[in-house]
Design goal:
The structure holds 2 protein chains of 2 kinds. Chain A is an alpha/beta fold. Chain A has 3 domains: 130 residues, Nitrogenase molybdenum iron protein domain (Rossmann fold), CATH 3.40.50; 110 residues, Rossmann fold (3-Layer(aba) Sandwich), CATH 3.40.50.1980; 143 residues, 3-Layer(aba) Sandwich (Rossmann fold), CATH 3.40.50.1980. Chain A is 42% helix and 15% strand. Chain A has 19 helices and 16 strands. A 6-stranded mixed beta sheet of chain A has the order 1-13-12-11-14-15. In chain A, helix 15 links the parallel strand 11 and strand 12. Chain B is an alpha/beta fold. The mean pLDDT of chain B is 92. Chain B folds into 3 domains: 140 residues, 3-Layer(aba) Sandwich (Rossmann fold); 105 residues, Nitrogenase molybdenum iron protein domain (Rossmann fold, 3-Layer(aba) Sandwich), CATH 3.40.50; 150 residues, Nitrogenase molybdenum iron protein domain (Rossmann fold, 3-Layer(aba) Sandwich). Chain B starts with a strand and ends in an 11-residue tail after the last helix. The chains are: A alpha/beta, B alpha/beta.
């Protein structure tokens, strides 16, 4: 059975042995991973983190011609306004206490109908939540009944918040749901999008920001590629096109893994596996891989040369700077290598998960480099920073580090990818060195952690799981 | 039964979490699946309203997974609680179970009692998300704190200083909460009393401990009634309900006189009331030309009942605006046809109750006011209709550290905001503030 034909897929942990708790060196981790007895780890104290529902919702929210119905209590859709940025292509079934006893099928039916009447989408995604999973609500009957009545594909993405310990599982489930649409085809005829029959490549995006994606699209188009951007920032029509692409390439292979493999299995579209395109060298490698497959090596070389001419002269502007990077594994590894090329010392990485799909990205880094595996869990980083503070902490939401005198650098608004992403990151580090505000916060904000904890080993609460 | 379109006021759990993360020194210990706290974090971040102590990824959460759903999560909770009190520096720890732990029957109250018995200042609020919305979460957790705090912390005896409590201003749902609590503190302080506002800077756990010996509780919305009733029934603290609080010198003066009479503190009040009135009149002299040339004459509002009352009496009673449609977004969950406050029915042609953004939009389209007071979700609608929008309801998408929309200072803020919406030479086709 291919990835795109089943109703769902196995959890990330079961498919690719995903680890969500670890602290040690890359070398130690690799040795353990190579042994047959690699053990899962758990935390005996944890802080809040993203779950599969949030990851799936963030991805689905960016696909046009679709609507998402979050089937659960009102709070399970609280994040939606931020993801949809004022858009209204989402609903909640708003289950209450009575529904947890009697089931929410009627409400689901009513909301699906409303979503169709108000938006006429091509796809209605149903996002599952813990209450529905625990109750084992029969969503499939509702879908079967309504798909005949409503002129849309209704695709359940039955996240649940607890079967996996990693948020990326939600991306996997959303991608599998999107792939089911590709495999099943549209409920009603979709006009053939322009340019019809053109030679194009799929650029697979899942959780990147718009600026970063645009930077890569510009590079690919400059080399003469027609880019089918899917699924993030894509459309239902674009998803259907994916099966006719010349090749697929992702921004982050590990996160896009399910879609890359699924499109290859279903439609024979080859997947190009590369590193994450951060830093000039990695971007060039990414483009070269694209060029070889697309038969556009010369065009790609011209683009690379032109872009590299624009880059500032070499040198080690970050000589002596100690930097800790907290990003997904592919991004973290390439960012680390790029910053090292500028003279920085990388003191450690924090990754949300490690597994068979992204371990290789750590392979080019020094074996003695510290890795912290855990989505968030900043109390452990706080303990680490209170003992050996880096100069900079790069992350999506790094502000807490200022309490420890470490300069936070947020990547929220940075492109990160492509040549312009590399330039932006280097420039942002340069600007961040004005540490007046960080010093003020360090002097005046009190850390929420007890002194006793800050003196302890940061991996104190990471234990091997006993089955 | 059409589901919810657009953001409603969150769930009961999130209301409780909103409340707790705005009390300095309080550490919530969440017992739920992983995403609950982060759903809340994304909502607040988009709305411009993060907490100032622990927030988002910092909040301890047991992040229960499948094993604990099948076999129960009590031991995971016990371990999480025990370790959280060792790692997080808090004056009070509040265990907050979510939907899943309630459905599988984890006895959080028993776990909490066990740890409290070992000397930790820890209490529990069992307010799963499906039990209501964010307003009911505020009501429930404030009641739970007042009910359980004496069991884990020493409550000071009544001293010579007099004090009043302010309850019913829901910090997670009132975008102006910081400025409003500051204004309430400033106003009531004139009665020679200390004011316990419970949230925000300088109002940590000590203000909650003082509450039991207060001389009066001012209840500014229905959501403060449960906690106020507990203080009255068990600790003899009388309460004064001022639904919607007050905005402008007339209503504020009236409220102060009532409170002063109850406290027996009428000394030197009139000079203060007169000075504040003069301040407002001074502002009106600067506004009057704009009022007659630019200001609207009618409006529609979507927000909680308290805010609607407050704006209704000021915009109607002082500025003479007519209220074309009032859409109450905090009607108690489960009430099919909630009855709005009697005062509200006298202020407007039509009162609606809805949390659904689609329905709210339809009502506004039907009534076509000259000004919309609502939230950030109404931006697209305002743009489409070309009607100025003032975002006074959550999620507002505004960062407000010091603005008020009640009392005396709030009236000045309203005048400023109306000016910014209606007067600038090139406000654009759909001015939004």
């Amino acid at each position: 059975m291919s990835l795109f034909t089943g109703r769902t897929i196995l959890s990330r942990e079961k498919r690719v042995s995903t680890l969500s708790a670890y602290m040690g060196t890359i070398g130690d981790f690799q040795r353990e991973a190579a042994s047959p007895e690699q053990r899962q780890r758990i935390r005996t104290l944890s802080q809040a983190r993203d779950d599969d529902i949030l990851a799936a919702l963030e991805l689905l929210s960016s696909i046009s011609e679709t609507v998402t119905v979050i089937h659960g209590a009102a709070g399970c859709s609280a994040a939606a306004p931020g993801f949809y940025r004022g858009g209204d292509a989402w609903y909640s079934t708003g289950l209450n206490e009575q529904d947890t006893i009697l089931g929410g099928g009627e409400k689901l039916r009513a909301v699906l109908t409303r979503a169709w009447e108000e938006h006429h989408p091509r796809i209605i995604f149903i996002l599952g939540t813990p209450v529905v999973a625990i109750n084992n609500d029969d969503v499939n009957s509702v879908v079967l009944e309504l798909e005949g009545e409503l002129d849309a594909r209704i695709i359940p993405v039955m996240t649940d918040g607890f079967k996996s310990k990693t948020a990326v599982n939600g991306i996997d489930m959303a991608l599998q749901g999107i792939g089911r649409y590709l495999a099943a085809g549209p409920a009603r005829k979709v006009p053939d999008p322009e340019p019809s029959g053109a030679d194009f490549i799929n650029l697979i995006t899942v959780s990147e920001n718009r600026r970063g994606v645009n930077a890569l699209v510009r590079l690919a188009e400059a080399a003469g590629f027609v880019v089918n951007l899917i699924p993030r920032f894509g459309s239902a029509a674009g998803i259907l096109r994916a099966g006719k692409a010349r090749a697929s390439i992702a921004v982050n292979d590990s996160r896009a893994d399910v879609f890359l493999r699924g499109v290859e299995e279903t439609s024979g579209v080859i997947s190009l596996r590369t590193g994450t395109p951060i830093g000039a060298d990695a971007v060039s490698e990414w483009l070269l891989a694209l060029g070889k497959t697309g038969g556009r090596e010369e065009e790609v070389l011209r683009v690379i040369e032109a872009e590299q001419r624009k880059l500032p002269p070499g040198g080690k502007p970050l000589e002596g700077r100690r930097i800790f990077v907290d990003l997904p594994a592919g991004e973290a590894a390439e960012t680390a290598l790029f910053l090292e090329s500028l003279g920085a010392e990388i003191t450690g990485l924090s990754l949300d998960f490690v597994d068979e799909t992204n371990m290789e990205s750590l392979g080019r880094l020094p074996a003695e480099l510290l890795i912290h595996v855990g989505d968030g869990q900043v109390y452990e980083l706080a303990s680490l920073f209170s003992k050996t503070p880096p100069d900079f902490y790069i992350a999506q939401d790094p502000a807490w580090a200022a309490e420890f005198g470490v300069i936070p650098l947020s990547v929220r608004q940075l492109a990160l990818y492509g040549y312009e992403g590399a330039e932006e990151l280097a420039a942002a580090l340069g600007r961040a060195e004005a540490r007046t505000f960080t010093d003020y916060l360090h002097e005046n904000l009190k850390s929420p952690y007890k002194e006793g904890w800050l003196k302890k080993n940061p991996n104190w609460h990471i234990k091997q799981e006993v089955k | 039964m059409r589901g919810i379109k657009g953001p409603g006021p969150g769930c009961n759990f999130q209301g409780a979490l909103d409340t707790l993360t705005r009390i300095e020194g309080v550490v919530p210990i969440v017992h739920s699946t992983a995403g609950c706290v982060i759903q809340h974090y994304h909502a607040l971040r988009a709305g411009g309203s993060l907490g100032a102590f622990l927030e988002g990824f910092e909040v301890p959460s047991s992040n229960v997974w499948e094993k604990q759903i099948i076999f129960g999560g009590a031991s995971r909770l016990r371990e999480q609680m025990k370790n959280a009190v060792k790692v997080f520096s808090g004056d009070l720890y509040v265990v907050l179970p979510g939907c899943e732990s309630e459905m599988v029957g984890d006895d959080a109250a028993a776990m909490t009692a066990e740890l409290a018995g070992q000397g930790a200042p820890v209490i529990c609020y069992e307010g799963a998300g499906f039990k209501g919305d964010a307003y009911s979460g505020y009501a429930g957790v404030t009641e739970a704190i007042f009910a359980q705090l004496p069991g884990v912390a020493a409550i000071p005896a009544k001293g010579g200083e007099r004090s009043v409590n302010i309850l019913g201003l829901v910090p997670g749902q009132d975008p102006y909460w910081q400025g409003n609590l500051a204004e309430l503190g400033r106003i009531f302080h004139r009665l020679g009393v200390r004011v316990n506002t419970f949230f925000g800077s300088g109002q940590g756990l000590e203000s909650w401990k003082r509450a039991y010996r207060a001389d009066l509780t001012i209840v500014v919305s229905r959501w403060g009634i449960r906690a106020a009733k507990l203080l009255e029934d068990r600790y003899g603290v009388p309460s004064l309900e001022l639904n919607g609080a007050f905005l402008g010198e007339q209503e504020t003066g009236s409220a102060l006189r009532k409170a002063a009479a109850l406290l027996g503190e009428e000394r030197e009040l009139e000079p203060f009331l007169q000075a504040e009135k003069s301040r407002f009149v001074y502002a009106l002299r600067q506004i009057r030309d704009y009022y007659y040339a630019h200001f609207p004459r009618n409006y529609g509002i979507a927000g909680d009942e308290g805010a609607i009352l407050r704006y209704g009496k000021f915009l109607g009673g002082v500025l003479g605006f007519s209220l074309k449609a009032a859409i109450i977004t905090d009607a108690p969950a489960g009430e099919e046809n909630p009855r709005p406050a009697a005062e509200l029915e006298g202020l407007t042609e039509k009162v609606y109750c809805s949390k659904d953004r689609g329905e709210i939009a339809e009502i506004i389209v039907d009534t076509r006011p000259q000004l919309i007071l609502a939230g950030a979700p109404e931006k697209a609608l305002a743009r489409r209709l070309g009607i100025p929008l003032l975002r006074v309801s959550s999620p507002a998408g505004r960062m407000m550290l010091n603005r008020s929309n009640l009392g005396y200072t709030g009236a000045l803020t309203v005048l400023e905001e109306l000016w910014e919406l209606f007067v600038p030479a090139d406000p654009g086709p759909y001015p939004i503030r």
